[in-house]
């Protein structure tokens, strides 16, 4: 029992750690993207509030087990009401974040039928796993007894496996899209930007997939101990942090928020205009950020891809 309680404590501490990271990311987003799309800002701030509430509720769960009921095995026969928090909050955050990435796929390749189909599939998977999380939690709320967990295998499997499959579909699709952009771009700066996006996609997609799979494995193997609560505590936070990391990565890459803006207009005889200027509070350069340097050259550039599509990569 001590080992299980230690895992509860570890899950709670990691949950708080991720909340601190999320708070910093939300602050960075607020400072660097004051003109972001209104619905994206609404999504970010709503998820942040939900994560704060989730941390409070899961902390109550850990306190009930580790402090109030310490040394009482009876606590594992009937869990406190706060044990219901993980599926509800994780279902909301994961479904919202996955739907956001479905929108990104649709926007990046809106002229391709296959991208629209994948976007619809991602949304359907996101809704399916979220609904499975709600239904499973509602069934467990009737008794909150650990012995009833075995009856919830189907719902939990649909929830967590569906979430992992959705993450894999998103990751593979984004890799295909970004690799295609990278292959077509004639500019080294754009190639570097897309390479960073590819690394970011693999890292963020892999971490949520691994934790979701670990959660479902622990639930199947140790359903009588409620051991799966440890990764379940942090799964929602990972999704929200992935969303903010993706949005804030545009600052590092010097895109819309603009550490250093670069604009390139391409027409018949390619005319290039580069600007360095201070655009937001995120610009770290004190003197150079206020300078403007304009370089105009005329040369012939042959490209096969649409420069508007390359702008989409940096803008999303």
From TrEMBL:
Residues 163-250 form the DUF6534 domain. It comes from the Eukaryota. Keywords: Membrane, Transmembrane, Transmembrane helix. Pfam families: DUF6534. The chain crosses the membrane at residues 6-27, 39-63, 83-106, 113-134, 154-177, 197-222, 228-247. Coiled coil: none annotated. This is DUF6534 domain-containing protein.
């Amino acid at each position: 029992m001590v080992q299980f309680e230690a895992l509860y404590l570890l899950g709670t501490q990691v949950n708080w750690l991720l909340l601190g990271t999320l708070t910093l990311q939300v602050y960075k987003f607020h400072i660097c993207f004051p003109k972001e799309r209104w619905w994206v800002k609404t999504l970010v701030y709503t998820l942040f509030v939900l994560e704060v509430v989730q941390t409070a509720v899961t902390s109550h769960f850990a306190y009930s087990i580790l402090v109030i009921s310490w040394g009482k095995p009876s606590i594992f026969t009937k869990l406190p009401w706060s044990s219901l928090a993980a599926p509800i909050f994780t279902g909301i955050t994961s479904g919202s974040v996955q739907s956001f990435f479905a929108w990104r796929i649709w926007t990046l390749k809106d002229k391709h039928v296959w991208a629209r189909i994948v976007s619809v599939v991602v949304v359907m998977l996101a809704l399916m796993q979220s609904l499975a999380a709600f239904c499973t939690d509602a069934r467990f709320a009737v008794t909150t007894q650990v012995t009833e967990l075995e009856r919830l295998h189907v719902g939990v499997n649909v929830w967590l496996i569906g979430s992992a499959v959705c993450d894999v579909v998103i990751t593979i699709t984004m890799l295909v899209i970004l690799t295609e952009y990278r292959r077509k771009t004639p500019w080294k700066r754009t190639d570097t930007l897309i390479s960073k996006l590819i690394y970011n996609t693999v890292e963020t997609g892999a971490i949520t997939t691994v934790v979701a799979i670990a959660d479902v494995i622990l639930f199947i193997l140790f359903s009588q101990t409620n051991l799966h609560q440890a990764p379940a505590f942090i799964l929602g936070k990972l999704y929200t942090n992935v969303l903010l990391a993706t949005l804030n990565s545009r600052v590092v890459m010097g895109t819309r928020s603009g550490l250093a803006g670069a604009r390139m207009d391409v027409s018949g005889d390619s005319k290039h205009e580069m600007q360095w200027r201070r655009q937001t509070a995120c610009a770290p350069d004190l003197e150079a950020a206020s300078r403007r340097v304009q370089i105009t050259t005329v040369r012939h550039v042959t490209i096969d891809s649409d420069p508007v599509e390359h702008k989409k990569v940096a803008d999303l």
